[in-house]
Amino acid sequence: xxxxxxxxxxxxxxxxxxxxxxxxxxxxxxxxxxxxxxxxxxxxxxxxxxxxxxxxxxxxxxxxxxxxxxxxxxxxxxxxxxxxxxxxxxxxxxxxxxxxxxxxxxxxxxxxxxxxxxxxxxxxxxxxxxxxxxxxxxxxxxxxxxxxxxxxxxxxxxxxxxxxxxxx
Length: 168
Known about the structure:
The protein is α+β, with helices and mostly antiparallel strands. About 35% of the residues lie in helices and about 35% in strands. A 7-stranded mixed sheet has the order 1-2-3-4-5-7-6, with helices on both faces. The termini are far apart. The mean pLDDT is about 95.
C-alpha cells in the first residue's frame, strides 16, 4: 500500500502553469453567475502562466499544494491591506481545483498560509470573500473566522458586497 502525501510549500517559477490552471478552473467555478462574465474572463485571461511566474519571481508569497506532480491549490498572502483592521496578515487568495474541494485540502492550505504569516512576523489574519460566494463564506466561518467588516467590489458597474473574516 502506498501513502499519498500532500503538503503546502512555497511556489517556484516552475509552478506558474499549474497555478494558472488552478486559478482558471477555480475562479470559473466560484464566480460564474456572481461576477459579470466579461469581467471574470478578463481577470482570468490576465493571470496567465507568465503573470504568475512574474509574481513568484517578484517575491509574492505564494503557497501551493501539489499531488502526483500536479498543482491542485494555491494561496497568496502578505501584509493586511486595510489599515483600519488590527490583523497584520492577510490571505489574499486561497483556491483549489474544483475536484479537490470538500476533502480537507482547503483547510490544510489555509492553516499553512496562516502559519506562514506567523513565521514572517505578521500577527492575526484577515480574509475577504464576496458575500455571494457562499462556499467561501461558509468555509471561513467554519474555520473560526469572525465576520468583522464589510466592503464592496465593483465589476463592470455591478457592485458586490464582500465580507472580512478575521483570526487573532
